[in-house]
Amino acid sequence: MPENTSIRNMKRHEITAKLTDSDPTMLHSYAHYIAGKMQRAAQRRDLGWYEALRILGIITDTTARDAIRNIEREQVAA
Known about the structure:
65% helix; single chain; mainly alpha
């Protein structure tokens, strides 16, 4: 087990090196910490959760692409 009492004080390479020996509750705490940071960053930029995922490329929404294709077709036809 790592000698740190808090996983937030550990560097990333320390976390990955000791991942198998780490306490699951510490890793769970770190996951919540990272999720909170992501949520606060999204709120500062006034993004919704799905908008942030689209920007990161994690999910794809074809609605915007279909709308652009329709606009381009109208411009070509005119």
